Amino acid sequence: MPGTSRMPVSLRESLNMVKRARPVNTLQSLQVINLDLFRNIVFFFFVFRIVRRSFWKLKGRGLIGTIVELYIDTRRILYGYFLRAPGIRTQVRKQVDESLAKLQAKMISTSGSRYLALPKEGWTEEALQKELETLANMDHTRWEDGFVSGAVYHGEDDLLKLQTEAYGKFTVANPIHPDVFPGVRKMEAEVVAMVLSMFHAPPAAAGVSTSGGTESILMACYSARQKAYVERGVTEPEMILPETAHTAFRKAGDYFKIKVHLVPCPAPSYQVDVHRVSRLINSNTILLVGSAPNFPHGIMDDISALSKLALKRRLPLHVDCCLGSFLVPFLEKAGFETELFDFRLKGVTSISCDTHKYGFAPKGNSTVLYRTQELRTYQYFVSPDWSGGVYASPGIAGSRPGALIAGCWTSMMKVGEAGYVDACVKIVGCAKKIAEHVAQSSSLAAELDLVGRPLVSVVAFTARNLNIYDIADGITPPAMHIAVTMPITKVWERLVADLEAVIEAEREKERVRAVEGKGVKGKATGDTAALYGVAGSLPNKAVVVDLATGFLDLLYKA
């Protein structure tokens, strides 16, 4: 067209291509920016997570404590690599196998018949009774004569007879069917109510019966975990417990993926260090723990101080009374010194109590108690859409033996409060006599030191010069803590006499070594000394784990 300049075709096409390409390049640029932003956000949260955890670690353990913990972890890992090295691994495996072979020889009798398949025809009643009598009389440590620490807590014939009769009446009973077995439902509810009353529970309190102290502790930890998740959205739960707390708490941590923080229990009180507990609390903490008393030393933690801390930080506090069970609630009525530990302390939200220990119920009975019904609800399991119908259970087990509940109810009703107070007088009184004898006997006081100030049934002590594990191997019961039971109350004088004799024998061994120029502190030779002495000295416990695993395997070797 006249007067109009025409753009070359090639230039026009190039401009059009640029126009068409511009939105694509812009979109690509935005994608790159978004990807970089996403990477930066992820990196930020990664760094934030590390910084937060490092801060919590330093706050909880302190600089020196963190360095020490890092050193211990590094030493443990490196020693683990050392144990797996060629040659070393073979030698370690050989020694473990030798130890397990000795253990098998002790545990499993090679005499008598073995039954590895069903009999072709059922046995006669006479044959069964004869075999049962043989099994009952197999060579064993005589708990009946008071030669076992803990393990069997009553064993009196009259009560055993009543328990057996109760068991027989409810052999097929299962509390999962309360309409079929209403009597079992009633007895279970009454057992829980009676135990709640013993621990001064408020009117809104609730509880559940379990198969033992471990399940009671597991359920309390699970309830705390669920409460923290539902109410605070905690997905990386942590709990803080004394290093002396029952190992069931560590099992709960393993089962339910709860990080466990262990707090020292330093001398002279051997109670948990409440200040260190406070330092370890963070936004992921779901539970604090105290023992009344603990199993290793028989020491009651400062539950009052833990209660104040739990209230201040608005955290649940579980008190483990599995061992104290039916002794601790009756200390005052029995005339002994005691400390507050139960629901009278407002910070205490749950308690575990074994009815099958000093409640004298048949083995397989315990309770877990909660300050409120809401806390108990967190341990329930309900499946509303199962094809088999609505399924609900109060704890881990579905079907449970109603016969054991009947035996527990029978025991509690037979013994009664007066009987439990009397048992407390005998058992705790015996523990105090043993502690006094250890402290006042010239031969024992020169070598043994009591651990802390035990208030209940356990007396623990350490040796100043001799190997404590060799002493343990030399006496019965085989422990350097003694959990006093009713059978032990009848033979405690013999126990301390045996202890004096063993210590004198160990001293004589040391004197002979000195004369021979071999020095003192000879190599530990007993089974307890070999196992626990090694366990305490190894920075990595893999060998001990192998031994314990082998022991568990032997339990099922027919």
Explain the overall architecture:
This protein has 558 residues and is an alpha/beta fold. It contains 17 helices and 12 strands. The chain has helices at residues 9-83, 88-107, 125-136, 157-169, 182-198, 213-232, 248-256, 274-280, 303-313, 373-377, 402-440, 442-445, 468-474, 486-489, 492-515, 527-537, 542-555; strands at residues 206-210, 238-242, 259-263, 285-291, 317-320, 350-353, 366-370, 381-383, 391-393, 448-450, 458-463, 481-483. The strands form 3 sheets. A 7-stranded mixed beta sheet has the order 1-7-6-5-4-2-3, sandwiched between helices. A hairpin with a 7-residue loop joins β8 and β9. The longest helix is centred in the N-terminal third of the chain and has 75 residues, at 9-83. The radius of gyration is 31 Å and the shape is globular. The chain starts with 8 loop residues before the first helix and ends with a helix.
